[in-house]
Design a protein that fits this description.
The structure is a homodimer of 408-residue chains. By secondary structure, chain A is α+β, with helices and mostly antiparallel strands. The first copy, chain A, has 2 domains: 6-208 and 324-405, 3-Layer(aba) Sandwich (Aminopeptidase); 209-322, Alpha-Beta Plaits. Chain A contains 12 helices and 18 strands. In chain A, helix 1 (6-17) runs antiparallel to helix 3, helix 3 packs across helix 12 (387-405) and helix 8 packs antiparallel against helix 9. The two termini of chain A are 14 Å apart.
Chain lengths: 408, 408
Amino acid sequence: MLRLNDGQLLESLDRLAGIGAIEGGGCARLALSDEDRAGRDLVVGWMKELGLRLQVDAIGNVVGVRPGTEDLPPVMTGSHIDTVRTGGRYDGNYGVLAGLEVVRALNDAGVKTRRPVAVAFFTNEEGARFQPDMMGSLVYAGGMGLNEAYAATDKDGRSVGDELRRIGYLGPARPGAIRPHAFVELHIEQGPILDEEKVRIGVVESVQGISWTEYGVNGVSNHAGTTPMRLRRDAGYLAASVSVFARALALEMGGDQVATVGTMGFRPNLINVVPNRAVFTVDLRNTDEEKLKHAEARVAAHIAEVAAAERVEVEARVLARFEPVIFDAGLVDRVEHHARALGLGTRRMPSGAGHDAQMMQRLCPTAMIFVPSVDGLSHNVKEHTEPADLVAGAQVLLNLMVELAGET
Amino acid sequence: MLRLNDGQLLESLDRLAGIGAIEGGGCARLALSDEDRAGRDLVVGWMKELGLRLQVDAIGNVVGVRPGTEDLPPVMTGSHIDTVRTGGRYDGNYGVLAGLEVVRALNDAGVKTRRPVAVAFFTNEEGARFQPDMMGSLVYAGGMGLNEAYAATDKDGRSVGDELRRIGYLGPARPGAIRPHAFVELHIEQGPILDEEKVRIGVVESVQGISWTEYGVNGVSNHAGTTPMRLRRDAGYLAASVSVFARALALEMGGDQVATVGTMGFRPNLINVVPNRAVFTVDLRNTDEEKLKHAEARVAAHIAEVAAAERVEVEARVLARFEPVIFDAGLVDRVEHHARALGLGTRRMPSGAGHDAQMMQRLCPTAMIFVPSVDGLSHNVKEHTEPADLVAGAQVLLNLMVELAGET
């Protein structure tokens, strides 16, 4: 069996985490920012050192290919290196850098594989700056056109197209030009289940469907002291009521339904003025498309009801909508097999977060490997995974990739 | 009977509204801003043209005095000329400029009064930039020390003391040096009652007590997709729940209880991250101190309950707290008398908003005169009062001031 270079993996994670480092040990490398560019340049440099053949495509996805002995579709692994504004150091980065360690292990052992082995990082997985999230892999899988992606703008009006050009990552390759034989993504769980149950490898069978909607509410601003409650048209009240409703709805529905109001803004945002404007977002997720639709309908009904009672107007804008994804059953079995062969405990589970792998499943058999997140923290500077778990997950990836690529 | 110069009053209102004018016809002259300075300079110029003797005190209150035939405490009127960020053109300004028209009417008719007649505008009535609101009149009435007032800072860390000096309105007079014989404030209602009932003069008997508290909530930021609802420590959820609770509480308590969550901010304020921080304010008002205390206790109990269930920490900071104020019964009767003598319909009512007059009641017999606000809009660029009502209210003020000052 090939052995992973443990120290190198941990050192690479440390070095990448130094770019866009923020207080508390986390990272801020928003997609297509200067920090993202610096992170990309570092990883691209490493890819070149490993002898990978690089392709940068027109949405900024970077794929490095280690040729096989036969001209076949490659076995691909990868993830993303952009982060949220208060991100951790493992989310995404771990899967990309572990992929490089797969290549290094093959190189160091002088192993030739039948199929090429490819390592990719996809643009704007997080969606923290530009919506939708998983943009790079979505375009790669043919789910979104380039022009639509280019037109997405951040809060300051800067577009994906302009920012890709600015940071020098609008490449010549057609997204999806390399159609893999199989895709495997290694990722931290970003949730508490493996950590709570002391299980070291999550065998990911599916990804929750995601529904992101931004609501803008128009009411009437008025004096907080003199306006009787019955006459108010309080935009902030509607916004707040949705947060409370979403919590109750998720608890009522149970299962893996989650609901989050993560952003909220009032105008004029003064102590003694009834808000005339509120903007907020709702994030709904479920592994069952019908249940997700039900949750969406319930939130919409609540908003319509409160809007009528409060006599405020609400506009809704869908920022992202992805149906749940079921991974390739055969490949999922192989993840489980290789983890168990290493003596690691496993647990089959859905992914609560969206991942590039869910887009790749449209193109080829795909699966994911999870390792524990301590206390389930993610999108948080305190995000942490024990080094032993990072190494174990990467070894599962290595063994699976070797099997899929076929030693010669 | 002396007649008010109607055209001059309306023209002065127009000219003052031109300073800090914002889209939609409103004004933004936050206390001690450059716009506030420009407004002050304009009004001070008018005071000088009218021959008033000016006193600027150490908190920036400006008092213009028209001497009487005897050296007695003056009869004072006035209000404020600062506005909220999205203010209207009448709130405060109307009372100050009508006061100048009282002086002009006396001057034009060559009337001498026994007592001096004084017109004042007080610093930072709105509290939109520096808390507490009604700061100038509070200091004038001895309810707050100068150093405490100077130390208040805005969101950018600039202090009242520094800003007073910067705009040139840190004057030499001791606040409260002129202790009036009586104080009368003319103001728009800022609520819908007079407009709805088609009554032209509100005879204000009392001012609601005001309780302003800012809450900061510390939770844990986490991934919105992977964190089960039961494990969340969502700062935003608590904040939202208070808005919903406050509404229900005010409706349940009824009477004149009002409750407003006017400001709200989440951190990190991202769609797919459970907020780890929320800051929001609660504005509670009632004319009955015991009921106001009850409302405060209920909100505090709700917050404690949700904080425990959600395992978040909450710190509370009182931004302002004023007990309800009852105006001088004899003076309130005189307001009613003069309005009726002019054939104007009257209604006795409390004030839902805080006013400088409530501070002056600590020093001398005080009362207020209200005129209708169309649709009750205030703290809103669409704030409007019909010219005929502006003139009617000012005439009531003139007649009352003449009576109080005593024609010779």
